[in-house]
């Protein structure tokens, strides 16, 4: 950078820093970051990765980019000297919530690691006008509001590049927007986002409702529109096709410009298909290659060599299958190709269950991915084993060499350096700065935990940082009118609301605790139980669970006898920005999905890195966390994935029997529709949830209830009676978190799948 920060800001705003508004300073910083990021672009030599994803949950970018450019401290000081605050200026920045949860956040962590490791890797996605809805809980139930992020000045810049795309036979133009992704002391890559010029934001009425028929006006209005009706599902296919068609044209154009003759495409591009949402890139690339004179069989081979697929779930509802006649309406030009791919797949195996098009005429996107890419990976060791042995066993037997595991990771720049600067500074004092680029160095912290007691002074410093972070969170909550006791244990469950993630299990524990306190059995330590979660707009039971938590929170708050010991807090509109405030302040991290159902989880890694202990099932990456930290430094409970898989296979699970057999469970479930709850909440929602738990309980909450109560109470007691031991175990978690750096994950993708060369 030329000149000091102050000189640059004066040049950009035309006045002294002290005279600028926060808005003016935000814009100046945005421009400064842009200039510096651009300076780090270099032409790509060799292969380039294209990570195609319907979601990029990027979060705010200002601080992140300043850190990665090495400008953060200087900017902060300069602003402070002029009486300004970077964190206040940051409030001006809207969060781009272009993702629902883990899948989209993972994509963003990956882009950060790619750029940090000097690997050429760009993202391809959609420029949704409104990200995930803003959640309003003021009426005691979730209400959805649009969440605009496209202000006049924003990180994603329009370009003159447009690609023609045919949607249901109608030609439209996809315009490319580019967002710079700068690595930590690394190169600048690009997140390419496509959009139409014809989108009409004024179509949005009453919350997030809009007319789904006028495709050209509404196509990219929202991330994942409600898919509970046909118009919604069609819209989603249109969105996906816009993304992959424009994306495929961009890839081919870039590769040709860099010298590819397309026959050698796989030497110029690696394409990662993030879940099944971008799967149509396979037939679309084949179509484009055929248009350029390449024969079908060779085109299939080129595409197979270029593309790889990541599976992120075994939940049936998340594995996309589209009826043939839906696809025919949206992408008639792909249907002959999909038909030929189905023939080809059937020629490779007699197993009909592996077909691309099943006997009911449904197109299985994941099946197309596995047949016509060279790699299929799961996202945690257990998840990949389940894919190989159960869910995708037929494919595994057909293509054993295609299957591989890539355990997820998180970028430590955002999830440590940015969100927990005090912890990062303490670590740097103890082991030096190298951990920022080589996370495995965190292991050196083990020396402070070695003795039975550990190094008392160091442990107390870590405990003090946690205490300070809890105070900071308490004061942030205080500004929102929520008062919590920072001396209490902070227990946090933040993630999308879904029955498989089992927020309802946590709810039942809290009701149980309420009864125990009423009976004079107070917990070992006061407990603040914090939730943050959005429910899909059409997911009724998920919304009922939110309502029940909110109602319980009211009931407890109104009862001084209980509220001295127990507080339930639901933070509205949970998003990346809020996660960055909550995670550093957490003592106990809730990772309580039904074993086998959470493919990996990545929040679990963020909490561990920030010195929380995990209370969790043997699911997803929890299994690997448990292996790394050892069983004494994590609270594991509940049925194993094998037990769960067998219980499903037997088909004889009966929730009602568990409800009737366990008086504590029965008492907790009945409380949902007891007089206290009904006085504070809505009977319709509470009754429905109660019936769901007794008569369905699809995610087997009841069998794990007892073990959960016992383990959680144990955690409370350990925290209360052995604080130093707790700090020591927290430090072990931090020291072992290095494995979960997304730099490690990206290194493995590159070694096994992409084969990119670092650009220096
Ligand atoms: C999503 O966020 C995930 C999987 C999906 O299939 C969809 Cl549609 C969205 C999550 C998994 O639930 C989570 O376990 C995993 O850590 C994350 O993807 C990233 O792999």
Q: Low-confidence spans: pLDDT under 50, at least 5 residues?
A: none
Strand content: 5-15%
The count of helical stretches stands at 33
State the CATH architecture of the largest domain.
3-Layer(aba) Sandwich
**Strand segment tally:** 19
What Rg, in angstroms, do the CA atoms define? 26 Å
Alpha-carbon distance between the two ends:
19 Å
Ligands in the model, by name, code or SMILES, are: (1S)-1,5-anhydro-1-(4-chloro-2,5-dihydroxyphenyl)-D-glucitol
CATH class designation of the largest domain: Alpha Beta
Shape: globular
Function: Allosteric enzyme that catalyzes the rate-limiting step in glycogen catabolism, the phosphorolytic cleavage of glycogen to produce glucose-1-phosphate, and plays a central role in maintaining cellular and organismal glucose homeostasis.
EC number: 2.4.1.1
InterPro entries: Glycg_phsphrylas (IPR011833), Glyco_trans_35 (IPR000811), Pyridoxal_P_attach_site (IPR035090)
Enzyme class: transferase
């Amino acid at each position: 950078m030329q000149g000091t920060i102050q000189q640059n800001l004066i040049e950009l705003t035309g006045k002294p820093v002290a005279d600028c508004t926060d808005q003016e300073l935000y814009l100046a910083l945005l421009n400064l970051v842009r200039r510096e990021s651009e300076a780090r672009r270099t032409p790509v030599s060799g292969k380039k990765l294209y990570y195609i994803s319907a979601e990029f949950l990027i979060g705010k970018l200002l601080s992140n980019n300043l850190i990665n450019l090495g400008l953060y401290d200087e900017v902060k000081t300069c602003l402070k000297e002029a009486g300004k605050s970077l964190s206040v200026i940051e409030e001006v920045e809207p969060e781009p919530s272009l993702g629902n949860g883990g899948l989209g956040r993972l994509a963003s962590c990956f882009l950060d690691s790619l750029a940090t490791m000097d690997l050429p890797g760009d993202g391809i996605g959609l420029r949704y006008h409104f990200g995930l809805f803003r959640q309003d809980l003021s009426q005691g139930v979730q209400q959805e509001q649009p969440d605009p992020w496209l202000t006049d000045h924003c990180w994603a810049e329009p370009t003159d590049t447009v690609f023609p795309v045919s949607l249901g036979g109608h030609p439209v133009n996809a315009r490319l927007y580019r967002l710079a992704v700068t690595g930590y002391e690394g190169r600048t890559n690009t997140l390419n986002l496509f959009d139409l010029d014809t989108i009409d934001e004024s179509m949005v009425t009453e919350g997030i409702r809009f007319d789904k028929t006028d495709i050209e006006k509404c196509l990219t209005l929202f991330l994942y529109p409600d898919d509970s009706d046909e118009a919604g599902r069609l819209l989603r296919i249109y969105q996906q096709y816009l993304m992959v068609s424009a994306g495929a044209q961009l890839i081919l154009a870039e590769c040709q410009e860099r010298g590819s003759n397309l026959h050698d495409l796989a030497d110029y591009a690696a394409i990662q298909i993030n879940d099944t949402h971008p799967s149509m890139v396979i037939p679309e690339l084949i179509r484009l290659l055929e248009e350029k004179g390449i024969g079908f069989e060779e085109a299939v081979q080129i595409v197979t060599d270029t593309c790889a697929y990541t599976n992120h779930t075994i939940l049936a509802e998340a594995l996309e299958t589209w009826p043939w006649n839906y696809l025919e309406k949206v992408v008639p030009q792909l249907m002959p190709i999909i038909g030929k791919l189905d023939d080809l797949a059937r020629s490779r195996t007699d197993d009909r269950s592996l077909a691309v098009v099943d006997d009911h005429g449904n197109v299985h996107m994941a099946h197309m991915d596995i047949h016509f890419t060279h790699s299929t990976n799961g996202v945690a060791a257990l998840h990949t084993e389940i894919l190989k042995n159960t869910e995708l066993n037929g494919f595994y037997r057909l293509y054993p060499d295609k299957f591989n595991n890539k355990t997820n990771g998180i970028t430590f720049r955002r999830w440590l350096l940015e969100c927990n600067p005090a912890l990062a500074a303490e670590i740097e004092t103890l082991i030096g700065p190298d951990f920022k680029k080589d996370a495995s160095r965190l292991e050196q912290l083990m020396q402070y935990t070695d003795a039975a007691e550990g190094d008392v002074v160091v442990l107390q410093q870590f405990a003090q940082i946690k205490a300070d972070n809890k105070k900071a969170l308490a004061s942030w909550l205080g500004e929102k009118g929520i008062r919590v006791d920072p001396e209490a244990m902070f227990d946090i469950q933040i993630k999308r609301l879904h029955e498989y993630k089992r927020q309802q299990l946590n709810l039942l524990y809290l009701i149980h605790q309420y009864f125990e306190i009423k009976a004079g059995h107070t917990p070992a330590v006061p407990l603040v139980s914090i939730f943050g979660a959005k429910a899909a707009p059409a997911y009724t039971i998920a919304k009922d669970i939110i309502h029940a938590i909110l109602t319980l929170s009211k009931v407890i708050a109104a009862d001084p006898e209980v509220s001295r010991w127990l507080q339930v807090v639901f933070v509205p509109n949970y998003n990346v920005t809020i996660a960055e405030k909550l995670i550093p302040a957490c003592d106990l991290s809730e990772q309580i999905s039904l074993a086998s159902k959470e493919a990996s989880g990545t929040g679990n890694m963020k909490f561990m890195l920030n010195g929380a202990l995990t209370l969790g099932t043997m699911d997803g990456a929890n299994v690997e966390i448990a292996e790394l930290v050892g069983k004494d430094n994590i609270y594991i409970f509940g049925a194993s994935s094998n037990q769960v898989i067998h219980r499903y296979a037997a088909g004889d699970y009966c929730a009602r029997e568990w409800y009737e057999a366990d008086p504590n469970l029965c008492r907790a479930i009945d409380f949902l529709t007891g007089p206290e709850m009904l006085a504070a909440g809505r009977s319709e929602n509470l009754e429905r949830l109660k019936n769901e738990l007794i008569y369905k309980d699809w995610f087997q909450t009841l069998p794990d209830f007892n073990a959960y109560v016992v383990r959680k109470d144990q955690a409370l007691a350990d925290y209360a009676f052995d604080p130093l031991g707790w700090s020591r175990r927290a430090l072990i978690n931090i020291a072992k978190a290095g494995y979960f750096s997304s730099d490690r994950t990206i290194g493995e993708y590159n070694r096994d799948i992409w084969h990119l060369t670092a650009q220096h």
